[in-house]
Each structure stands twice: as structure tokens, then as C-alpha cells.
């Protein structure tokens, strides 16, 4: 049976096992540090298998989290298929500000004055 990527259950399970593997890495690091304390050795570096497990589970977790979230889409989905004209090319209506709180502080602001009689 075909599932779209966002509905397929495999990335959920892979993400779960990657998280468990990262927890196992943390436990292994703590166990390694306590072992070094017991034998009175200085902590210099971790063993290579912990580094390999850490980076592999991190990469698998990132991939499965991306696959779990679904397909990527454009941010503005309402204008995907509409061609952009020259009139609207430089138009940014979301940035228009007409009445803002700094307007009276502007040097070019005339303000509302009463007509002189």
C-alpha cells in the first residue's frame, strides 16, 4: 500500500529509535566517565564507538525528523500558480505603515493645526 511521505509510519519509528540511540550515547558517556573515575585515570577523550554512534544516530534522527514533517511547501501557498506582473513586483503591502507612533517625532510632520482666524 502506498503512503505519502508525511503519512508513512516508518519515519516515526526511525526517529524514536534514533532518540533511544542518543539516550544510549549519553548513558555510555556517563558510564565511561564513572569508569575512568574508578580506575583513577584522567578524562581525555571518549572512545571511537561512542562518537560513531552519536553522529550516526544524530544524522538518522535529523533525516527522519525531516521525513516525518512531510513535504516542503512554499511559505505563501496562495500565490503558487499566479504569475507575477510588473505592477505587483515591487509592491509590499504588508509593510505599509500610515499611522505609527513615531510620526509626531518626525521633522517633516506638520500635524493637525487649527486654522488661524
UniProtKB/TrEMBL annotation:
Transmembrane domains' residue ranges: 12-30, 50-68
Domain of life (superkingdom): Eukaryota
Keywords: Endoplasmic reticulum, Endosome, Golgi apparatus, Magnesium, Membrane, Transmembrane, Transmembrane helix, Transport
Membrane topology: Multi-pass membrane protein
Tagged with keyword Magnesium: yes
Transmembrane in keyword set: yes
Compartments (UniProt record): Endoplasmic reticulum membrane; Golgi apparatus membrane; Early endosome membrane
GO molecular function: inorganic cation transmembrane transporter activity
GO cellular component: early endosome membrane; EMC complex; Golgi membrane; plasma membrane
Pfam families in UniProt: MMgT
Cited function: Part of the endoplasmic reticulum membrane protein complex (EMC) that enables the energy-independent insertion into endoplasmic reticulum membranes of newly synthesized membrane proteins. May be involved in Mg(2+) transport.
Complex and partners: Component of the ER membrane protein complex (EMC).
Protein family membership: Belongs to the membrane magnesium transporter (TC 1.A.67) family.
Protein name: Membrane magnesium transporter
Species of provenance: Strongyloides ratti (Parasitic roundworm)
Amino acid at each position: 500500500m502506498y503512503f505519502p511521505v508525511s503519512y508513512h509510519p516508518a519515519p516515526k519509528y526511525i526517529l524514536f529509535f534514533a532518540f533511544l540511540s542518543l539516550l544510549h550515547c549519553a548513558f555510555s558517556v556517563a558510564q565511561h566517565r564513572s569508569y575512568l573515575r574508578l580506575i583513577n585515570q584522567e578524562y581525555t577523550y571518549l572512545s571511537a564507538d561512542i562518537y560513531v554512534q552519536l553522529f550516526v544516530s544524530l544524522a538518522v534522527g535529523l533525516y527522519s525528523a525531516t521525513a516525518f514533517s512531510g513535504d516542503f511547501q512554499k511559505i505563501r501557498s496562495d500565490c503558487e500558480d499566479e504569475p507575477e506582473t510588473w505592477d505587483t513586483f515591487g509592491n509590499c503591502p504588508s509593510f505599509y505603515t500610515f499611522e505609527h507612533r513615531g510620526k509626531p517625532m518626525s521633522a517633516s510632520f506638520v500635524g493637525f493645526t487649527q486654522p488661524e482666524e
